């Protein structure tokens, strides 16, 4: 029943969003389909940045674009969304998050596909990225993130850091394995706290992590990000600092990218492809330089000193 309701919402959203960005029945120069995995701040910002940049570029050239944005809601519905785009033979597909990207790559080898909010394209496609796929990556320097936590929290050998992520997200596993190796090299114990269903499992595993660990690390995990108030509320009550790979309000500090700007860069790529100045195969996957952000209010609550520099 849950999947049936989700499917009905996707189909309904297809009608609504088609009319949002261009009048239904109007003639546009290009049609672009956006498949966003789910709604949360980071993915929402990336989609909005993409739309803003693409529409601005089209307007500058006197062109119009019909943008059909659809939110799948869960990974196994991404293919349903993508199939509506391929059936209509859209000019380009923007896939926001890894499940959306893999669904698009499996569905078409001819329509240009741009991904965003995807950590590792090489790992996602086992080293063989399709010729019609490119985009932007939200990868961050995990070594710098780990060192930032060690320095700001004065972590020492024997301390335990918990990593919370959804077992269904391949990007999260990549990030977990990366930070695990980095922390363990400093003698810090790392424990994974994984879940499959946020509604029934997340609260329990966060309680366990906050009770057993000195700090919590959250990778750029879409399911956690969608429910991160659960993590933030529990950890703040227990005075356990949270560091996220994607930023957000629950973390005492982050070394993260600007997801709106990530979407902007993807939108610029889309404009180049649609306007014929570049082929998708000519566009290299792009990453952004992350910035350091401290939540001074939360740091004060947790007794963490924000470095002067």
Can you describe this structure?
The model is unreliable at 1-7 and 9-25 (pLDDT under 50). It is elongated, with a radius of gyration of 20 Å. The chain is of the alpha/beta class. It has helices at residues 2-21, 41-60, 78-88, 98-107, 121-124, 142-153, 170-185, 198-212, 222-226, 228-237, 259-274, 296-302; strands spanning 30-36, 65-71, 92-96, 113-118, 133-137, 160-166, 189-195, 215-218, 242-244, 253-256, 286-287, 291-294. The longest helix is centred in the first third of the chain and has 20 residues, at 2-21. Helix 2 (41-60) runs parallel beside helix 11 (259-274), helix 3 packs across helix 4 (98-107) and helix 8 (198-212) packs parallel to helix 10 (228-237). The strands form two sheets. A six-stranded parallel sheet has the order 2-1-3-4-5-11, sandwiched between helices. Strands 7-6-8-9-10-12 form a six-stranded mixed sheet, with helices on both faces.
List the defining traits of the structure above.
six-stranded mixed beta sheet; six-stranded parallel beta sheet; alpha/beta; 47% helix; 309 residues
């Amino acid at each position: 029943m849950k999947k049936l309701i989700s499917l009905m919402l996707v189909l309904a959203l297809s009608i609504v969003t088609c009319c949002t960005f261009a009048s239904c029945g109007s003639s546009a120069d290009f049609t672009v389909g956006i498949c966003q995995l789910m709604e949360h701040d980071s993915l929402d910002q990336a989609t909005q940045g993409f739309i803003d940049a693409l529409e601005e570029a089209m307007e500058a050239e006197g062109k119009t674009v019909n943008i059909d944005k659809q939110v799948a809601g869960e990974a196994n519905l991404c293919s349903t969304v993508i199939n509506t785009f391929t059936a209509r033979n859209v000019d380009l597909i923007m896939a926001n998050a890894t499940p959306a990207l893999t669904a698009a790559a499996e569905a078409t080898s001819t329509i240009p596909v741009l991904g965003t909010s995807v950590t590792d394209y090489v790992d996602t496609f086992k080293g063989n990225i399709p010729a019609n796929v490119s985009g932007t990556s939200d990868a961050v320097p995990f070594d710098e993130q780990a060192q930032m936590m060690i320095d700001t929290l004065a972590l020492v050998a024997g301390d335990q850091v918990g990593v919370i992520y959804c077992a269904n997200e391949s990007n999260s596993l990549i990030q977990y394995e990366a930070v695990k190796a980095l922390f363990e090299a400093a003698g810090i114990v790392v424990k994974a706290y994984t879940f499959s269903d946020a509604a029934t499992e997340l609260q329990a595993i966060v309680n366990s992590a906050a009770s057993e660990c000195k700090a919590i690390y959250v990778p750029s995990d879409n399911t956690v990000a969608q429910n991160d108030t659960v993590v933030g509320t529990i950890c703040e009550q227990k005075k356990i600092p949270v560091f996220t790979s994607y930023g957000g309000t629950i973390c005492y500090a982050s070394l993260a990218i600007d997801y709106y700007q990530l979407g902007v860069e993807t939108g610029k790529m889309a404009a180049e492809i649609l306007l014929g100045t570049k082929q998708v195969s000519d566009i290299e996957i792009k990453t952004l330089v992350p910035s350091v952000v401290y939540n001074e209010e939360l740091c004060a609550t947790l007794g963490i000193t924000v470095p002067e520099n």
